[in-house]
């Protein structure tokens, strides 16, 4: 007897196949329409795109159904879920493994395609047709990959077990619910500016305001990616047990590189839009940003680099993804090689102009990104050339990346406060001299009068943070004055203000927590304490605990300040009975100005425990800064497209 | 009256701050070959525990960073170093970012009047 | 003409990525290949009062197997060694790594002892000097006591037939052809 349960995954699989065919049509029909100058065929792109989105959504819903209803006849469900799993983790388990996360990728891709469909009615048909063709090709390739090597609907019939393997305990966390979808919204979103850029390069029309059209897509993808990365960092911070928030891990770098390039793209777009300059560079950046997204997808899933993110890897998948990357990136970059010279710069620029400052910043951002790329793949290059293994870790990335960013940070407030075209050095100095002096004074005062020994690093970070803050605030005031009221200031300008201010907050947070955090590694017994700054951490009690699939210990620590108890923290050490793996549940006392962070390491003799206790000043400013940047991105994306001046 | 609690003992005791700093620097810059995604400061693997002890004793007997690094790399290879060494095979790695910086300045000047 | 550069860079990078697909980034080659086995002076599991040093490796080809009673994979590999020592004439030395003497002895008594001698490395000192990072590990030493090969993980029959046994045979021949 065929019951509903057994059919749903098949419907899901079939829907994917239909979507695959539609993607193929989407890639072909508008192109044929273009060639034959047939409007009808070009307009067919829209309904086909809608159809593709519908069937992918249907497919996703089928997998969702299988997870919610514990259909362990589907191999992917059996491998990643369990009847006892709480409902929201069952849902997020959809993207807990390779196949499902690819389905999420393609679902989000469909979402962006849908958005392009809705938001492109005023664009010329010929242009839109090409955009859809490119999106169709990307969808086609990706669905081919899914269907041939990573089918989420593979069945275990007829013999399947009554229960599943369970979701990896590390993933049973709210972080899994939000981090991958938001990250993909960013990554995948860059396919839209990519498609636009290909469309521009491919075409013969000059004087299309394509930079204006691309802007909201890049800005919103950037904003999503910023949140996605920040969430990943925050999740690692409280989950991994040792208080780190960035490891320069290959997978982290894979998301960081597109982020850097997208910032360069946003600014280069502005110049291309308003001054008709750097158009070739902007188009190249639009291609590079998506190529890096795909490269990231490849690096994470091919297993060729040692990383924290353990996706189940299979060389076949690696090969397919690399072939996909080669086709997409290769053809795009070849197109640029052939057509790029049509977009060469019409005139040269002045040294002290806003254009020059932006251009140079984009070079620095790309340079920094290229260094991160080099460091990330160097172990592969080294192995290929010498057959030996080498590691490239945080000491390299910190040493190499920070010097690129310092000039960028200096330029940030100068851009808005300067004019398009030539600026005299004198006028720049008048506008910003006092702000610069104040920033330097602030930095040295704080550093000299703080409890910690004087540090050049802290002074530099604080100085730059204050410089950006003052410059941005100054700009905001000028703007409000000019427009008459806060409401009259454009969303685009507010977006920039928030984003730049967010960067300042981020820089200060990173500077202070990296230089001034306190780490105490102790062997502690009941009633013993550790002093961190003005807080005393007392180990009060220890209990054994039992969970649904683990046993362990739970400690009770009390935080005291001036004799008063301010907080109770309960860090745990869990042993998962099935696999025997140990996990540390950290306990954090959060605060805007500092986190107190406790992690239990191991049980020692005579009731002692080895533990790590951290005082982390301003650590939350890191994610707060990122959030502000994302808000800025969204505000600017929503802004009126036709702004003639800031 | 202020109650003062007994202070917990540090896991690794140093009398000289420079030794403490050296110890921390080294254990954060060595990769745990067992877990591979943690440094030997954070890793709970028995090998990491052993190496921490070994490095602790060597720091206490005033061995230099180079001596300690050589001790470990002669057994586990350069893979264990998060800071890639600087020798003829890695000149490119360390030099390229600087070259990129110079190159970007050169290209920038080509855009200028 | 400069517009071709991005494409060129991309192709070069892809070349390295392509070459790397089959390699396993977790596998560490031993840096001790070609070097003498480290000096040591350890008791044996079979007779804790007796101690041995690296001289036992002289003038014969040795297979050195690092194991522990707490290591699950080692227990699985154990069967293989019992069978191999039955089939072939081997000088198989065990290195009992970071283990409890009682547990190790108990295991050898109940499951069988394929080793000619088992070194007792309770603190893991010799293991560290050998660059051991994951049990089980197996080393092949030549007649001069030089390390010629290391295998990380289980030795099974295919590893034995394809790599280890042919190497042992060539090392045996090496010594005698020099005479």
Concise account of the structure shown:
The complex is a heterotrimer of chains A (646), B (113) and C (179). By secondary structure, chain A is α+β, with helices and mostly antiparallel strands. Chain A has helices spanning 4-35, 39-43, 45-68, 75-80, 87-92, 98-119, 125-149, 174-189, 191-202, 210-239, 250-275, 279-302, 315-339, 354-386, 394-417, 425-449, 456-483, 491-516, 620-638, and strands at residues 518-524, 528-532, 535-546, 550-561, 564-569, 572-576, 582-585, 587-589, 594-603, 609-617.
Terminal-residue CA separation of chain C: 65 Å
Residues in helix, % of chain C: 25-40%
How many distinct helices of chain A?
A: 19
Mean pLDDT of chain C: 90
Number of domains of chain C: 1
**How many β-strand runs of chain C?**
7
Q: What would the CATH topology of chain C be?
A: Glutaredoxin
Largest sheet of chain A: 6 strands, antiparallel
Give the overall form of chain A: globular
Taking all Cα atoms into account, the compactness measure Rg of chain A is 27 Å
CATH class of chain C: Alpha Beta
Low-confidence stretches of chain C at least 5 residues in length (pLDDT < 50)? none
Share in β-strands of chain A:
5-15%
Outline the structure in words.
The complex is a heterotrimer of chains A (646), B (113) and C (179). Chain A is of the alpha+beta class. Chain A contains 19 helices and 10 strands. In chain A, the strands form 2 sheets. In chain A, strands 2, 3, 4, 5, 6 and 7 form a 6-stranded antiparallel sheet that branches. Chain A has a 4-stranded antiparallel sheet with strand order 1-10-9-8. Chain A is globular and about 85 Å long. The model of chain A is unreliable at 642-646 (pLDDT under 50). Chain B has 4 helices and 2 strands, in the order E-E-H-H-H-H. The model of chain B has no long low-confidence stretch (mean pLDDT 89). Chain C has helices at residues 5-20, 72-87, 101-111, 125-129, 157-177; strands spanning 41-43, 51-53, 62-67, 92-97, 117-121, 137-141, 147-152. The model of chain C has no long low-confidence stretch (mean pLDDT 90). In chain C, the strands form 2 sheets. Chain C has a 5-stranded mixed sheet with strand order 5-4-3-6-7. The longest helix of chain C has 21 residues, at 157-177. Chain C has a single domain (32-178), classed as 3-Layer(aba) Sandwich (Glutaredoxin), CATH 3.40.30.10. The N and C termini of chain C lie far apart (65 Å). Chain C is elongated and about 75 Å long. Chains A and B meet through helix 14, helix 15, strand 1, strand 2 and strand 3 of A and strand 1, strand 2 and helix 4 of B. Strand 2 (528-532) of chain A pairs parallel with strand 1 of chain B, so a sheet runs across the interface.
């Amino acid at each position: 007897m065929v019951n509903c349960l057994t059919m749903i995954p098949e419907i899901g699989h079939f829907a994917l196949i239909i979507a695959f065919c539609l993607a193929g049509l989407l890639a072909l029909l508008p192109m044929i329409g273009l060639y034959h100058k047939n409007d009808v065929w070009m307009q067919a792109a829209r309904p086909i795109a809608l159809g593709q989105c519908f069937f992918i959504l249907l497919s996703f819903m089928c997998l969702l159904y299988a997870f919610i209803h514990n259909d362990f006849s589907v191999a992917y469900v059996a491998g990643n879920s369990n009847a006892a799993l709480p409902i929201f983790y069952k849902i997020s388990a959809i993207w807990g493994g390779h196949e499902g996360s690819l389905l999420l990728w393609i679902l989000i891709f469909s979402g962006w395609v849908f958005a392009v469909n809705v938001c492109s009615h005023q664009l010329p048909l010929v242009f839109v047709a090409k955009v859809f063709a490119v999106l169709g090709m990307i969808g086609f390739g990706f669905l081919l990959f899914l269907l041939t090597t990573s089918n989420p609907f593979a069945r275990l019939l007829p013999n399947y077990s009554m229960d599943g393997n369970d979701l990896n305990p590390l993933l049973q966390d709210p972080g899994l619910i939000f981090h991958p979808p938001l990250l993909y919204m960013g990554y995948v979103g860059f396919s839209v500016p990519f498609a636009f850029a290909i469309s521009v390069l491919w075409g013969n029309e000059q004087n299309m305001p394509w930079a204006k059209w691309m802007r909201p897509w890049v800005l919103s993808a950037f904003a999503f990616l910023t949140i996605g990365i920040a969430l990943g960092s925050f999740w690692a911070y409280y989950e991994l047990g040792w208080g780190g928030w960035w490891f320069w891990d290959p997978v982290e770098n894979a998301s960081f590189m597109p982020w850097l390039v997208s910032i360069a793209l946003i600014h280069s777009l502005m110049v291309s839009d308003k001054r008709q300059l750097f158009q070739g560079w902007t188009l190249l950046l639009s291609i590079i940003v998506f190529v890096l997204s795909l490269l990231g997808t490849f690096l994470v899933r091919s297993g060729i680099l040692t990383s924290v993110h353990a996706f189940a890897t299979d060389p076949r998948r690696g090969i397919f993804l690399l072939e996909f990357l080669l086709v997409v990136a290769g053809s795009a970059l070849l197109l640029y090689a052939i057509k790029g010279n049509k977009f060469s710069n019409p005139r040269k620029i002045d040294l002290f102009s806003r254009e020059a400052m932006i251009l140079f910043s984009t070079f620095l951002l790309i340079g920094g990104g290229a260094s991160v790329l080099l460091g990330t793949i160097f172990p592969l290059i080294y192995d290929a050339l010498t057959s030996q293994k080498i590691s490239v870790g945080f000491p390299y990335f910190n040493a190499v990346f920070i010097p690129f960013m310092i000039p960028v940070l200096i330029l940030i407030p100068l851009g808005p406060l300067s004019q398009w075209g030539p600026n005299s050095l004198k006028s720049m100095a008048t506008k910003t001299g006092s702000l610069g002096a104040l920033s330097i004074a602030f930095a040295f005062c704080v550093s000299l009068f703080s409890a910690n020994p004087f540090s050049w690093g802290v002074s530099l970070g604080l100085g730059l943070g204050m410089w950006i803050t003052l410059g941005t605030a100054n700009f905001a005031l000028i703007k409000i004055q000019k427009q008459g009221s806060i409401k009259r200031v454009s969303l685009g300008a507010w977006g920039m203000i928030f984003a730049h201010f967010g960067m300042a907050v981020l820089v200060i947070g990173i500077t202070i927590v990296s230089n001034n955090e306190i780490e105490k590694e102790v062997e502690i017994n009941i009633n013993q304490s550790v002093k961190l700054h003005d807080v005393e951490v007392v180990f009060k009690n220890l209990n054994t605990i039992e969970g649904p699939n683990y046993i362990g210990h739970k400690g009770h620590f009390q935080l005291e300040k001036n004799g008063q108890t301010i907080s109770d923290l309960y860090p745990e050490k869990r042993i998962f009975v099935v696999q025997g793996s140990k996990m540390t549940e950290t306990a954090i006392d959060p605060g805007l100005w500092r986190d107190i962070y406790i992690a239990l390491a191991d049980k020692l003799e005579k009731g002692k425990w080895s533990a790590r206790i951290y005082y982390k000043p301003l650590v939350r400013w890191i994610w707060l800064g990122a959030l502000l940047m994302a808000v800025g991105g969204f505000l600017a994306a929503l802004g009126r497209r036709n702004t003639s001046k800031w | 009256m202020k109650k003062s609690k007994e202070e917990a003992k540090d896991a690794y005791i140093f009398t000289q701050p420079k030794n403490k700093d050296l110890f921390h620097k080294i254990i954060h810059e060595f990769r745990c070959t067992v877990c591979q995604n943690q440094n030997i400061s954070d890793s709970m693997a028995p090998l990491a525990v052993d190496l921490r002890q070994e490095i602790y004793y060597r720091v206490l007997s005033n061995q230099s960073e180079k001596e300690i690094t050589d001790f470990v790399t002669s057994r586990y290879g350069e893979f264990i170093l998060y800071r890639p060494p600087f020798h003829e095979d890695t000149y490119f790695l360390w030099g390229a970012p600087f070259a990129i910086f110079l190159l970007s300045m050169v290209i920038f000047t080509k855009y200028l009047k | 003409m400069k517009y071709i550069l991005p494409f060129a860079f991309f192709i070069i990078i892809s070349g390295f990525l392509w070459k790397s697909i089959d390699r396993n980034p977790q596998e560490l080659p031993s840096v001790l290949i070609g070097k003498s086995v480290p000096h040591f002076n350890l008791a044996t599991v079979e007779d804790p009062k007796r101690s041995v040093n690296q001289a036992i490796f002289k003038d014969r080809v040795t297979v050195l197997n690092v194991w522990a009673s707490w290591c699950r994979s080692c227990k699985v590999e154990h069967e293989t060694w019992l069978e191999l020592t039955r089939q072939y004439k081997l000088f198989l030395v065990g290195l009992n790594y970071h283990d409890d003497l009682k547990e190790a002895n108990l295991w050898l008594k109940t499951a069988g002892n394929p080793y000619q001698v088992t070194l007792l490395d309770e603190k893991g000192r010799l293991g560290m000097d050998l660059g051991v990072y994951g049990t089980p590990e197996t080393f092949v030493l030549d007649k001069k006591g030089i390390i010629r090969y290391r295998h990380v993980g289980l030795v099974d029959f295919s590893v034995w037939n394809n790599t280890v046994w042919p190497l042992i045979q060539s090392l045996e021949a090496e010594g005698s052809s020099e005479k």
